[in-house]
């Protein structure tokens, strides 16, 4: 059964719609790794879509911030402003849904979903050194993570940890462990502005990384029109 793996949608309706169109017919079930809202101008659209379509979803730090589960203290000004803006606009039902999302790791079949890392939902796995510290917490051969907005992930072999980058299709080897990041739907930060996602087919032991062009000018203009920090609009063009 192919899974559509989405992460870091960040209230970007245009990006999510483009992903839906591109992924049509390629999957049976939807899994979401969190950060459904925050930053973008369409929080109710992305929250409702995930509520309706995701079989399983876990929370991200922005889902906590935008629903009052966690204080926005300690985050940068743009994130805090967007969190307050989002919190004032989420419908009661969407806010309740987001606040009720479980923290990872969440087991699905024989693989795990986490937002940040298996040890800490708010931790960023950017470097091999970050991954080395989480090794003992890895419980499944395949763990999906988000949070960094960088598509790819890490392959863990006995000889060391290797970064997975620039691969379109990954055939999973039985001897390795994998941390797989589908990338961010709504705010990519790997210098590629196209919306990112992945399709995972456990039967074929296959992960397909995908990128899709979407209407960035519309998403960016909505951010500006909403009075959200302009940096949140500009970065969409750069993928940073
Ligand atoms: Zn995020």
Briefly characterize the structure.
The protein has helices at 13-23, 43-53, 61-65, 77-89, 92-100, 128-132, 216-225, 230-238; strands at 3-6, 29-32, 54-57, 106-108, 111-113, 142-144, 152-157, 160-164, 169-171, 177-181, 195-201, 206-212. The protein has 240 residues and is an alpha/beta fold. It is globular, with a radius of gyration of 17 Å.
Q: Helices, strands, pairings?
A:
Layout: E1 3-6, H1 13-23, E2 29-32, H2 43-53, E3 54-57, H3 61-65, H4 77-89, H5 92-100, E4 106-108, E5 111-113, H6 128-132, E6 142-144, E7 152-157, E8 160-164, E9 169-171, E10 177-181, E11 195-201, E12 206-212, H7 216-225, H8 230-238
Parallel strand pairs: 1-2, 2-3, 5-6, 6-10
Antiparallel strand pairs: 1-11, 4-5, 7-8, 7-10, 9-12, 11-12
Helix pairs in contact: 2-5, 7-8
Describe the structure.
- With 240 residues, the protein is of the alpha/beta class.
- The protein has one domain (3-238): Metallo-dependent phosphatases (Purple Acid Phosphatase, chain A, domain 2, 4-Layer Sandwich), CATH 3.60.21.
- It contains 8 helices and 12 strands.
- The chain has helices at 13-23, 43-53, 61-65, 77-89, 92-100, 128-132, 216-225, 230-238; strands at 3-6, 29-32, 54-57, 106-108, 111-113, 142-144, 152-157, 160-164, 169-171, 177-181, 195-201, 206-212.
- The strands form 2 sheets. The chain has a 6-stranded mixed beta sheet. The chain has a 6-stranded mixed beta sheet with strand order 4-5-6-10-7-8.
- Strand 11 (195-201) and strand 12 form a beta hairpin.
- Helix 2 (43-53) crosses helix 5 (92-100).
- The radius of gyration is 17 Å and the shape is globular.
- The two termini are 33 Å apart.
- The mean pLDDT is 96.
- The structure holds zinc ion.
């Amino acid at each position: 059964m192919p899974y559509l793996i989405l992460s870091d949608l960040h209230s970007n309706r245009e990006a999510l719609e483009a992903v839906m169109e591109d992924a049509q017919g390629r999957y049976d079930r939807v899994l979401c790794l969190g950060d459904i809202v925050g930053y973008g101008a369409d929080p109710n659209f992305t929250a409702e879509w995930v509520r309706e379509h995701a079989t399983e979803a876990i929370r991200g730090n922005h889902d906590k911030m935008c629903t009052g589960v966690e204080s926005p203290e300690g985050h940068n000004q743009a994130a805090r402003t967007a969190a307050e803006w989002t919190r004032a606009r989420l419908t009661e039902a969407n806010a309740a849904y987001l606040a009720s999302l479980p923290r990872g790791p969440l087991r699905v079949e024989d693989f795990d979903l986490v937002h940040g890392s298996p040890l800490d939902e708010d931790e960023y796995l950017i470097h091999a050194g970050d991954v080395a510290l989480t090794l003992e917490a890895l419980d499944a051969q395949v763990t999906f993570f988000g949070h960094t907005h960088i598509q790819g992930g890490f392959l863990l072999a006995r000889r060391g940890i290797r970064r997975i980058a620039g691969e379109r299709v990954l055939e999973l080897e039985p001897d390795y462990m994998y941390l797989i990041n589908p990338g961010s739907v709504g705010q990519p930060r790997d210098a590629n502005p196209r919306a990112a996602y992945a399709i995972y087919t456990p039967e074929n032991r296959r992960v397909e990384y995908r990128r899709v062009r979407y209407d960035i000018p519309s998403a960016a203009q909505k951010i500006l029109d909403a009075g959200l920090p302009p940096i949140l609009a500009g970065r969409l063009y750069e993928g940073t």
